Amino acid sequence: MKGVDRMITSYEIFVPTIMGSGSSLRTGMKLRSFGCKKPLIIFDKGLKDVGIADVIVENIKSAGMEIVIFDKVLPDPPDILVEEAAEIARTENIDSIVAVGGGSSMDTAKGVNVLMNNKPPIMNYFGVQKNLLPGVPMIFIPTTSGTGSEVTNMCVITCTSRGNKDSVVSPVCLAKLAIVDPDLTLGLPPKLTAATGVDALAHAVESLTGGQSNPLSDALARDAIRTIAKWLPIAYKDGSNLEAREHMILASTFAGMAFTNALVHLGHSIGHTLGAAFHIPHGIACAIALPEVIEYTAKTESDKVRMICECLGADVEDNATYEEVGSTAREALRKLIKSVGIPNLKDLGISLEDAVNVAPKITADAGLAIAPYRITAKRIAEMIKSAYDA
């Protein structure tokens, strides 16, 4: 890596992780080993309908726990819902939290933990928080392969009064343990497999090209990109392929580790803004202009974008200009994203005018602070136009 001998950097692996088929059946035992007796179990009603939640609940009960359930999780969890769950947690005097599900369940759990000993509303704590009072031990059990939230130190919450998404970044958002069981992702519908898979892809490519990247995040991101490129199309076509599910959930966790260390940038700024404006699922919103975003990064991050091309199996000439490198990456990413049926803005029924009009709001997103170089609303609008019907 160019300049690595002059680099001063730091990185961490925050969350101990157990991974493997059937590992979720250790949940109750692990809670007991932490000295916990009364966990709050957080999930959405869909997980109960497919039987996953009941298996985890019974496993925890069998370990002798008194349980409290919150099963009202919604996508892009709104602050008022998080505050409702936190009120239940405090009233019931729970001593631990188990979140089962996708990013929304884990974000809800993190928000609850922030409010266990810090006065609501949660919007008071948006941003980086280093001095919050600690919460309770948390165990996160993902059932999708996308957010990587089980190993991150942040939660994304919808602020209903402002009509946007914001995040809390704090050690209080860290799990004490992640349990990564690919069995829980078997049979995940193709559309959800695709949407969560491209979310993990966005985490990986943005963490590789942003201003906070480091040797550890780069290694994790490259492995995640290679794995997603190979196994996401297989998992999309055959939801019962356990090998594909194992690879995808590991890639998601690696991508989560990468972006916890290196953070994400413009792609997620666009995704957050489009998602809030048009109620687009998070993974799809982040994927819409991702190829254009990585093309933009090639101007200053040509070596990193070459790495992305290599991981995607796209050939780049040794003497290629940064424009050619960026173009190759854009096309390779677009091919992968389209191969798993991710819709564009036109497919979603959003007018080009409405989509372009959000560009100024994107420039206000905090993620732009670590974008490779400054970008204007006009340039972002051009990216949205390029991606609109791609």
UniProtKB/TrEMBL annotation:
Transmembrane segments: none annotated. Gene3D superfamilies: 3.40.50.1970, Dehydroquinate synthase-like - alpha domain. SUPFAM superfamilies: Dehydroquinate synthase-like. InterPro entries: ADH_Fe/GldA, ADH_Fe_C, ADH_Fe_CS, Alcohol_dehydrogenase_Fe. The keyword Translocase does not apply. Residues 18-182 form the Alcohol dehydrogenase iron-type/glycerol dehydrogenase GldA domain. Keywords: NAD, Oxidoreductase. Its EC number is 1.1.1.1. Belongs to the iron-containing alcohol dehydrogenase family. This is Alcohol dehydrogenase. It comes from Sedimentibacter acidaminivorans.
